[in-house]
Predict the structure.
Amino acid sequence: MHFLKSRGFVHPLASHITPRSAYLTRRAWLTAMGAASAATALPLAARTAAPGKLAPLPGSKSAVAGAMTMDKLTPYDDISTYNNFYEFGTDKSDPARQARSLRTRPWTVSVEGEVKKPGSFDLDSLLKLAPMEERIYRMRCVEGWSMVIPWVGFSLSELVKRVEPTGNAKFVQFVTLADKAQMPGLSSSVLDWPYVEGLRMDEAMHPLTLLAFGLYGEVMPNQNGAPLRLVVPWKYGFKSGKSLVKIRFVEKQPKTSWEAAAPSEYGFYSNVNPKVDHPRWSQATERRIGEGTLLTKKRPTLMFNGYEAQVGQLYAGMDLQKFY
Amino acid sequence: MNRWLLHAAAKPLLFLLLFLPWALLLWGAMNDSLGANPAETLIRSTGDWTLRMLCLTLTVTPMRQLTGLSGLARMRRMLGLFAFFYALTHFLCFAWLDMGLDLQSIVADIPKRPFILVGSAALLLMLPLALTSFNGAIKALGAKRWQTLHRAVYGVVLLGLLHFFWMRSAKNDLAEVGVYALVVAALLLWRLARVWRDRQRIARHG
């Protein structure tokens, strides 16, 4: 270089060559790396940094098999602005805008039907029912996109055990809030309100089936189903009812909202299955939200959304083409 | 008004106006400002714009007849070509962003899914119209034959509407489809009414 200088060449500073935006990203990246290494040093602490938008709700790393996928997390902004929550409008950007009107306190969930100890649980008692865990699940929407979400909550089975289901309890029905005063979407007849979903008893008792109260180490954003929702990671997203108000234990398989609306398109089980197409599109691949660029190839969809090792035995011997 | 329509700048201005949504989508795609699922935004928006352009194209003649603004007729070809341009972009977005340009799966998908079949049929039907849109083609075909061929646009808009309806059919959420259906119905009924009136006149006057 010195011979260049000797000819009168003024060597530029590094900061003059590298654009400001580039070296600022580099710093953010280094900070992120620092945070990541701190997270690995504390194996029991949650892996995620809270976005600082809502009240904190920490959870310790879950020990449930399959509950901590190593897939890259979907950014909080995507998770909280791209939602299917028809009670607040059918456009995916509607819930983030309209769900502000949702009042999440006081909130009670009534548990009824085939149980020895039916009752009404208020939110505070539910929050204290079992230790909060962070669970990083893949979420696959029936529409062909997916996210990776760090939920906070505990296994639904914790609640089920406390209410002592009777021998007649074969299915669990989940009823979600339908309050016209708070939910502008209810004025349209997209679906029959309230939105109802259901699980078979063994599915409800599976440790991966989560009663979630938050995400990214904070309480649940309204648009994601505050104050509490179900998360069943091996089924299409619509099986995971939001803003639950009633859990009913029943003997017969309950009819779900989407089954009632379009029986040829949606079945009771709705397990993620790349081999069973939706009538209007293929389910073989999915677009991971927030991953790569516009031209990034879609990912292959995994059987049971990648939870086959954990849940495959629940469906042993069942014809999944028929029970879709 | 008609003087403005005949002004030399009228067509370039309209061109820019009709190109604007496309340019904004491209800008959004390049700056990653199309939301969490930009591929879906692009596919849906280009589909919406195709239907809007088709409706605008079909508005030209009734508007000209209602207002007597003959200058409107100059805009019809450009509107029709823009409808084709948006439809083509719509298909390319689907083929590229959704199907990864995998020709085999695109071909397999078309007959398997009625709504994609109907959409593809509409695009194919637009192709001969776009190809014969220049003045030379009118001369070569003869005005009468050319006009008969270009009546296929009614088929295109009906197929496009069916494509949109089918896409939304599972949800009981047909308000948006309903708006397009009403506009298209009004535009087609206007034409039917005129044909019927002309026949009556001919019958009366022998």
Observations:
- Chain B has one domain: 2-205.
- Residues 2-205 of chain B form one domain.
- The two ends of chain B are 37 Å apart (CA to CA).
